[in-house]
Amino acid sequence: MSSSTIPHGADQRRGPLRPGERVQLTDEKGRMNTITLTPGGAFHTHRGFLPHDDLIGAPEGCVVTNTIGHKYQALRPLLSDFVLSMPRGAAVVYPKDAGQIVTMADIFPGARVVEAGVGSGALSISLLRAVGDGGYLHSYERREEFADIARGNVETFFGGPHPAWSVSIGDFQDEVVKKEQPGSVDHVVLDMLAPWECLDAVATVLAPGGVWINYVATVTQLSRTAEAIRADGRFTEPASWESMVRGWHVEGLAVRPDHRMVAHTGFLLTARRLAEGVTGLTPKRRPSKTEFAAEDGQAWAGDAGAWNAEGIGERLVSDKKLRRAAKDAASTVQRGAFKDTPEAGQRPE
User: Fold this and answer.
1) In this structure, is residue 187 part of a structural domain?
2) Would 254 be classed as within a structural domain?
3) Smallest Cα–Cα separation from 240: which of 252, 230, 253, 255?
4) Average pLDDT in the 253-263 region?
5) Domain membership of residue 157 as a residue range
6) For residue 33, what is the domain's CATH number?
7) Residue 271, burial from CB neighbour count under 10 angstroms (0-12, 13-18, 19+)
8) What is the pLDDT of residues 89-127, one digit of tens each?
9) Is the peptide bond before 117 cis (omega within 30 degrees of 0)?
10) Could you tell me if 193 and 234 lie in one domain?
11) CA-wise closest residue to 267 among 233, 231, 235, 226
12) Helix axis angle, 319-335 to 144-158, nearest 10°
């Protein structure tokens, strides 16, 4: 396969370990650390140090020994590892949900996809992998700081700008109808507070049969989005679900569920665009319709009188933290990898 036909970023996933790459070190107790390979550098702990030169040029999956005999296995981090340890300003879409979005929205190589908001870029990376170099992903983000963080993380993961990706700043419902032709988009992916506000915009750009998938955090958002789609009539009956992942401890006869699990992270809701001028079928059996008055939308928003992150219980992110995360994301692009840092969810030695 010639270099021109290799999918973007694929060459970074093969071959011996190289300077500037991220490497995940796992010791005999399962503790993980992610380091950046630097000629002449070393990974230090209170149990000795490991020269980076022992890893540079070695095959992926090797086992190396530090200065006092402590052993590590070395592997390139998976996408799920990257997402949970990369610089972030907003909460990321967890790998379990990103996988569901790619599969349940039927996102295929070469697809035309739009998403909002981009957050820290975690979902964007999964979408870019799915559409491939010949696809199209246009991400819309209201805050420039989040867009900067996402650009840094995407470029770090793929080793540079992805040819299928572009980012626009502004409100999705206003910008998408300016930049996309009517009926030209295969999939719309929304990770935002009030997706029901985008009904007209989504119906305009989404092709007949195209999939609209929403990622929301609370049951109030889920209910209001579903009822708005039903009332609109231009989409199929919405389907809603959540996924939960529970690991298992398997060691000899000691086989049991883990004490901790990744439970609720968000709800997913999908619907498909019907042909122009067609009204969707109403299911014969369904719960009585819930009407939403203006005050219903304000009930969870405090004094602001509108749906916002604070109103639904999300943590607010300070401008200082966003600037720091954007700086960290940009620096990883320049260095080609992460600085030495404990893996997400793990304690450093």
Assistant:
1) yes
2) yes
3) 230
4) 92
5) 81-304
6) 3.10.330.20
7) buried
8) 778 899 999 999 999 999 999 999 999 989 889 999 999
9) yes
10) yes
11) 226
12) 20
